């Protein structure tokens, strides 16, 4: 990662030569690796400046990763910089644990503990579900929308508090945070039993500080730790790992909008969780790596809307999970549905376009490009789940499944999960009609988050393209 150039307080901003240093960093990266091998990463100096500023302000740094591919979102250079040069406590948050088997989540936790001993690892999810509940295969086509007390069910705030207490070692009074967690747990339990919804605006006000360009000014080489008795926690990570959802889960209600679009959070913001705990949300930032393009797409690093050839990524996904079986696709060349035919990425996209009714505008042929983008978004949302395993997991799978921490995680998810609570969860199936597709095309091209704003109106059901008669309004003989 690029380092911030050292400076003294007396120097002017133009003398810092950050731009020249950053250009040298980019030149070194591009000189060492070819464009074909080098991954998509952040080239905007202003975004890196925001990361530097957040690290300067923070007493503890949260590095949020996606449990489905945590090594993809974990830059070792940041670990060495934070724990070594800055001397700060670093907490690795394995987020979205509801999308992975509990045994796999625990295995990843121990993997990072073993290879990075200075890490504090926490499992977290803003939308827990009971892993013992069987999942319906039709849920692939559904979006879950939480209402009311959904954010108070987050799994992991208690573990995160314990990690922060271990790092601060009593230098900051975190009793107000513990009291808030107890109130959220009690409130969520009360809401489940009452069957009534509570509006998100009914909770206590959260003080939000919107940072501007002035916050990017140098603050000096050193800063007082735990200034004024306030613990500042910086939240950093790649795009689409759930930083905003994590903050909403910690606060207990929605205070940050969520989106799959990289760059959705433009400036870092600070949120006072309690009078003695402040959260600092940094925009998603992509570190350089040597990941293949297909994995970058599936991990949300490379924007799906910018892909010119998505079929290779679909093939990468289909070679690892049975996409055609999960989506109940029929081979486009199969006359007999019971007969087996070899599948390729193009066949999967064409079959999905046929099932969803994706047609080109002029020739009314199956729109395979649009179908490929749709499949990639299903994978990014977690409705088609591809999880990577730590080394040696397959040989020790039975050990991890019977591990005490695995059983504890299963019990916790079952305790706080929304299973059986229909008042607080609403599932809406994506419509297949062309009218919905046309009205929602702009939103999908912008990679709108499936867990987005609650007040976003859903597209009304309509007849399919094949059943709609465009001349039905004309009288006889008027065509």
TrEMBL record:
Q: Provide ranges: composition bias, Acidic residues.
A: 420-456
Residue ranges constituting the CP-type G domain according to the UniProt record: 48-288
InterPro entries from the UniProt entry: G_CP_dom (IPR030378), GNL1-like (IPR043358), GTP-bd (IPR006073), P-loop_NTPase (IPR027417)
Is Heme tagged as a keyword?
A: no
Residue ranges for the region (Disordered) are 417-479
**Record Gene3D superfamilies:** P-loop containing nucleotide triphosphate hydrolases
Q: Does the keyword GTP-binding apply?
A: yes
Please give the CDD domains that the UniProt record associates with this protein: HSR1_MMR1
Which Gene Ontology terms cover its molecular function? Answer: GTP binding; GTPase activity
The record's Pfam families line, in alphabetical order, gives: MMR_HSR1
Keywords linked to the UniProt accession: GTP-binding, Nucleotide-binding, Phosphoprotein
What does the UniProt function comment say about this protein?
A: Possible regulatory or functional link with the histocompatibility cluster.
Which protein are we looking at? Guanine nucleotide-binding protein-like 1
Organism, per UniProt?
Answer: Rhinolophus ferrumequinum (Greater horseshoe bat)
